[in-house]
Design a protein that fits this description.
Layout (H helix, E strand, L loop, with lengths): L1 H10 L3 E6 L9 H18 L5 E9 L2 E7 L41
Parallel strand pairs: 1-2
Antiparallel strand pairs: 2-3
């Protein structure tokens, strides 16, 4: 899976590597796990500086399978860390301009 995103990392001169420290077995929904990892890697590539090293590390920690994506991006601000696990939550870095609003937005009717 990391190989699929490697082309995006190469565009920024980034190195994307995978370290499987030990084989692990986990019961998980493969599709959901795959999408979560793709999202994490995509964000790491987008938010890490050029020539950064992004690592995917697979390990067992006290009997619990762990997959870590390690990068040098800015990270998530403390005030957003709990909310990011809410469905559809996005960190808004800039106020939306009227032309950028989704179709569900409405402007007040004027005279």
């Amino acid at each position: 899976m990391a190989a699929q995103l490697e082309v995006l990392a190469e565009e920024k001169g980034q190195l994307l590597s995978t370290d499987v420290l030990m084989p692990i077995v986990a019961e998980a929904d493969r599709v959901v796990l795959r999408q979560a990892l793709i999202n994490l890697l995509d964000n790491a590539i987008k938010h890490s500086p050029e020539r950064a090293h992004i690592r995917v590390v697979v390990r067992d920690r006290s009997g619990t399978p762990v997959v870590e994506v390690i990068d040098t991006g800015p990270g998530i601000a403390p005030e957003h860390r709990e909310a990011i696990f809410q469905r559809f939550y996005r960190i808004d870095h800039a106020p939306a301009k009227p032309a950028e609003r989704g179709s569900g937005s409405a402007s007040p009717a004027g005279p």
